[in-house]
Amino acid sequence: MADDSSSDDDLPLGQLKKPAAVSSSAAAASKKRAIKEESSDDDAPIKPKKKAKTSNGKAKPDKVTSSAKVKKEKNGKSSDKKPAAKKPTNNGKAAKSLKQMDKAEKISHAMQAYLWWNADNPPAGCQWVKMEHAGVSFPEAYTPHGVKMLYDGQPVDLTPIEEEAATFFAAMDPDGMHLGNPKTAPIFIKNFFADFRAILGKYHIIKDFKKCDFEPIRRYLNEQKIIRKAITDEERKMNKDSKNETMFKFGYSLVDGHIEKVGNYNMEPPGAFRGRGEHPKMGKLKQRVEPEQVMINLSECAPVPRCSVPGHAWGDLRHDPTVQWLCQWKENINNQVKYMQLAAQSSFKGKSDRSKYNKAAKLCGNIDKIRADYKKNLKSKSMEARQIATAMWVIDRLALRVGGEKDTDEEADTVGCCSLRVEHLKFDPNGEGADNKEIELEFLGKDSMLFKQTIDFGSALYTENHGMGEQVYENFKLFCKKKKQSDDVFSDLTPSVLNAHLKGIMEGLTAKVFRTYNASKTLQEELLKTEKAAGWARLTAAEKVTEYNNANREVAILCNHQRSVSKAQETQLESLGGKLQTLKDQKKTLKKMLKRLNEGNDKGLPTKKDEAKAVEKANKALEKAKEMKEKAKTNEEKIAATEMDEKAKALKKEAGELKFNQAHLWEKVPSKDQVSKKISNWTEKIAKMEMNIKHKDDNKEVSLGTSKLNYMDPRISVAWCKRNEVPIEKIFSKTMRDKFNWAMAVPSDWEFNESIAKQG
DNA sequence: CGCCTTACTTAGTAACGTGGGC
DNA sequence: GCCCACGTTACTAAGTAAGGCG
What family does the entry list (predicted)? Predict the structure, then answer.
């Protein structure tokens, strides 16, 4: 399995790209025809001639197709030596028979039967030989709601297009990260209003944003939200069905005889551009994309899908097997090309993912050489060599991104290593004096995430084991000398210069490989550390998972993967703090009670106040709300039902709080025994809650998902699960298991090191 | 060669849906 | 069995890097 993954991997991507586009598409085309013939029996059920486009979608022929396919692939598979890998991927649950599966399950079953890492590769330089799909699914045309915004207090008639734009603005949360931030709100409003005015035309009465009142539309949208909340189960099912229908139609592609999932098959709908950070273009109107703007890419032999928007047609057609994309179009905000591509669990993505990790693993064998190289050059007489060496240290040790140049008129002002400016470094941030070797790095990185860390270059962390911290510090001082705050620290260093140097050291090495390498290496080392600790074997699976998450957190911190703390989270944490205090107070009360009982004074001890009443009241309200929901026909009734529901929930919450507040008490005067038992109970509860709060607090600003999804070699996690008897589902969600299907078969002693690079 | 285009990976957040505590 | 906090998924913005072109 993973071991035989052979030499394949880096082949298709790198070297052979050139002969690609034009010439090879012709060559590939002729080859394609040959292949088509060979495998035609294979495709027979899938290609009922004209309707082939919908072959992945339409109801009847499809059912035959998928089940036939399943059987075939299954048989083919059982002959190849590994039935084992299959079972755990089947959700852990007892395998369903084909008859019991719904359509989506059947398709996914069929897809799982294809193991690309055991299959032949497409011709060198090509990603596929045959590819067919249904194109993108377009959002529905805008339906006007007729709710009028106010201008200068007066309702204004708007055309549907104008109304749509106004509605995009009204849909923005006034307290959200764009309008709720006093720094970004003016940018957003300025951009939006400029585009809105352009739609309205010169002579429209709307001229001043301050006189605009979008509140009526905003209220309407909120009302719609409430109505949607009150839908019946039946309606909910219908929505799901129609969603599934478009998934069946557009969500799958046929690539070289097997089904693959498409990632983003829904065309991005129009709206207000939600750029992050202080993006200079936020608020601009993102236009609706017409089919004519879309280019689709499929094989020449594939049927061209009919465009699903009435009266429209695809803009252009391509047959380029050297690329992965199925559709592309231009977006009007930054004039960038966007793509529809296969999903993360597809073979295309799986192949490049595996090759990414193999490349990072290859770095294990070269890292000493590389560190020695930049150590030497840190003192080089050539300024360029010195800058390259210092940048490499930064990228290696601080895990910064390479940092390409950005045009701040067009994009947010964010930086990485090469684009660091003098103003982002603060020497001796704590004013500790001359021989202090601290620098505070403060800047906005990708997605405008704050990087703020004080690096003590003289500390053991950066000086021991060839850490070179002191020399790096001297270099930084040198690079910043006589420069303006706004000057680049690495004056003439660019990502291409840096990457050219890296390529000279190790084939395929680029700056971003260091992040993958360090993330995976860190995970592996952290996991190993805990496994070696005394008593490890006695831990439960859940406790082991906590340790895994701790290791994961180390990686996330290394990569500076953050998330903002939501209001809800903040209040939740606060309320937990309140609860903890209550528990502590209750414990005090219990101790006092015990003391008095010991003294034989049991008069006036607090007892439980009647709480059943409150509970009953809440339950009644809840029942009524349910009833209203079921009866509701009109919008007004639906809104009333939702309101009632919310009221009832508030009552229930209140009752719960009352219950919690006197949970330490008894109906009658308790015995000494009862009290002391409860005291020890409470001690335990308090400890548990303190742990819980600490854990939540530690995690609230760290995002574990990104590193798990993009940086940590999944084979490390799979092997860890296997040797520690932790079910893989505890670590990887369903989609992650699908994405990492190629990694599931590694043995329990698999290691992230240079030897795996040789294997492929 | 430096800049622009192309193609793909990485990223946080909003919306969604579900599993496990009451 | 219910419900909601929480994890998962969808969405699309924002990066990197290679290659082409003038």
Answer: Belongs to the type IB topoisomerase family.
